[in-house]
Amino acid sequence: MPKTPVWRAIAATLMDEIASGHYRPGDKLPTEAELSTRFGVNRHTVRRALAELGTLGLTHARRGAGVFVLSEPTDYRIGKRVRFHQNLTEAGRLPAKRILTLQTRPSDKDEAEALALPPGASVHVYEGLSLADGTPVALFRSVFPAQPFPNLLADLQFHQSVTKALAAAGIEDYTRASTRLTAKTATATQALQLGISEGAPILRTVAINHDTTGRPIEYGHTWFVGDRITLVVAD
Amino acid sequence: MPKTPVWRAIAATLMDEIASGHYRPGDKLPTEAELSTRFGVNRHTVRRALAELGTLGLTHARRGAGVFVLSEPTDYRIGKRVRFHQNLTEAGRLPAKRILTLQTRPSDKDEAEALALPPGASVHVYEGLSLADGTPVALFRSVFPAQPFPNLLADLQFHQSVTKALAAAGIEDYTRASTRLTAKTATATQALQLGISEGAPILRTVAINHDTTGRPIEYGHTWFVGDRITLVVAD
DNA sequence: GGAAATTTGTGCGTATGTATC
DNA sequence: CGATACATACGCACAAATTTC
Questions:
Q1: B34 vs chain A: nearest CA distance in angstroms?
Q2: Per-residue pLDDT for B78 more than 60?
Q3: Domain HTH gntR-type, which positions (chains A, B) (predicted)?
């Protein structure tokens, strides 16, 4: 069993308390001295936990004043390794997915090109809704080549996780090759599914993921609710 | 003048040495003990600097083995993420800029915090319009601390380039600390300036740029017309 | 307005644990 | 196995910014 450092346990506790609403956006956390007493550790150990919350964008420290819980919208970090579940977990929110459709069908022109497949080759398509704390924050559609992953749809249904389903198919790791971003306004269908008004701002990302050999394995679109999500590109 | 912490100066030095190719991707950095001796500081101070490189994704530490350089030097200096930045604010592919306002005024709360200035400290503000083929594609506002750059407004007016104006003020190099992206809809004022309808989708980016000592020197917003621009983040 | 108390930030020193070589 | 190297944790002191009185 991996031993968990004390500072990590403290960070997890504080993240839980933020996620549960015990500390709300704008609230001041207890002082480092108070947290030291509460957890029975040195102030530096508390500071290590608070540093973690800070780099995750969950809190912000002001010298002389205190450490404050940041307000929404939630930052969603974008970079070489993007995992929706992991990101929102780190941000102290409860992630969930709802499957809308799972199907296998012939690829269209864009999909075949993005995945380097022959025109019309069979692909698996996974469409769903991402929620944080019960609120929809994004719609997504992931397209995978069907031939190398015969059982992917069943794995996706079971795990509800792209990472785990790909792992079951033997893909240990994958990285994002590119991300394109633009702004849109919500269509009527999107607005209904996301619980927003038609015409509300939407941040659309289009990404291609590669396995470690450089073979494209996922062509994904995500439509984020602009008012609920901020993407962060960390340099 | 803001005093730079020792660990930040050490982090900047190591980043320079990585960027210059003195340490190449895959290389092992000197041990913490060696770096402590070299810089004449405690090992914890070196660790604070290395922690910064780690969270920036430049290095990766392996317990018992060492600290290893991850990124290509080009990724840091002229690499993809920084090119992304240059495309945003430097108009690398945008043929024209139109200056809307150049002024010096007291900073608001957000600006002072982003630039690590005392509340209300004086800042230079550069607002303008970016055009491609005569069509407006983005509005931008860049905010700089006024005190270190007395002639910045004149330099901006002359060069119409942030990089060149900062170079004239003695800033040889600067890097983007973070970029945040979200979707908005155009306000009436923005719609008028950009030649679009009120409520049209807007991609907003917010970025903070640091000089090589880690001091924030630019706080920039850009509002892209969603229908006319797609941003690309290449990893 | 100013002094004092509070609170986070930086830095040093020490000791011990754990993974790698 | 021993030596090396990073990780964790405690303690102390002072600096810098804010808040309180």
A1: 24
A2: no
A3: 4-72
